[in-house]
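Interim report, section 4.2 (structural modelling).
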Amino acid sequence: MGDLGKLAERLREFAAAREWEHYHTPKNLVMALAGEVGELVAEFQWLTAEEAASIMDDPQAGRRVRAEIGDVVAYLVRLADVLGIDLLEAAEAKLAESERRYDPARYRGVYRKAPPLE
Amino acid sequence: MGDLGKLAERLREFAAAREWEHYHTPKNLVMALAGEVGELVAEFQWLTAEEAASIMDDPQAGRRVRAEIGDVVAYLVRLADVLGIDLLEAAEAKLAESERRYDPARYRGVYRKAPPLE
Amino acid sequence: MGDLGKLAERLREFAAAREWEHYHTPKNLVMALAGEVGELVAEFQWLTAEEAASIMDDPQAGRRVRAEIGDVVAYLVRLADVLGIDLLEAAEAKLAESERRYDPARYRGVYRKAPPLE
Amino acid sequence: MGDLGKLAERLREFAAAREWEHYHTPKNLVMALAGEVGELVAEFQWLTAEEAASIMDDPQAGRRVRAEIGDVVAYLVRLADVLGIDLLEAAEAKLAESERRYDPARYRGVYRKAPPLE
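Predicted structure of the assembly:
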């Protein structure tokens, strides 16, 4: 079992040991994920593009960003586990679709939304 | 290199092949992540707790959820790569902290916010 | 000038008095809005549907919800002011469109996404 | 009744006419709000600060931003109505608190998080 699988297992055990599984419904977990992403966004909201790019050079800010990222990952892994979704497969499927939709020759240097694939 | 590392590399190549790296600043990626989590939340917003729990039994809804989760993972992996953060380590650090903060004996069955660790 | 206009003016003065206007770019304000909505979502994430419906009966939780709603309104009004968007007109336009898209006779009791208007 | 009150009433009638009130629980509405804010964020995510500042000069992008803002306002007004919260009072209370917390003399030109009020 890979590292994401081990993390999913640790999160299952964390919830089971505290009898918190009843909180971990898909609706609740998707809300928890949104809440943590909101906290992550807040770490960047007042920064200029340059300050944001070097945020990890600031020990305090870097620590907070790492903590929020950790919370986001935990809820995402827990949600995927409860839904029975393989996170890596889901991402790879979307990436393969984007690789077909966005021909490098026609989208070089500039982003614009491409039509969906047939 | 683990699977998350391979995904990060494919995302790097995807951006490089289209000369899209200039779009992938931390501020932009954190916004993209928030946008995709919003789309994921929208898949669940009108569902009852029961409908949400069995959403993956519906082929169309399940396909949409899997696609949105894929987008969330992709932007999270790309953001972490750009910031130089190890996603698994960040999650494990937060989980270890939560394991210490939430003594199973004192938090059995009910969640309430615990004081931060000293 | 209506109440929303007075609030927009107080927010302008709040920013001007502290020379914080440079922080209030559209990108930053939209991120701040997302961050505050995340905090609002977090107040509800572990509640059952029943607990959520009666959250305002709990003095402490009610106070927190009111505070988060206040933050969301403030950033939304500030963002709209900076962009030159009339919040009520925007909402009324969308509502009028929804009233046409969702014929009550065909959508009674059940929600499903309707095709966009021609 | 003020304009926000009229909008709240139109939203109540919109829901009642379609027998959609059962969808408009606080949990669902707070998720819908998060979903629409996500769509709003997405309109800005790939823009530079300058492009974002002039987004309303672009007819197509401006139309989309106005539409997303309209959706955000509608769900916020509906949520506040269901919870029994006065949006303007909530915002004014938070602003008054921020005016006391952030002494212009000590926070001129630079934002840093102030301690909460006693």
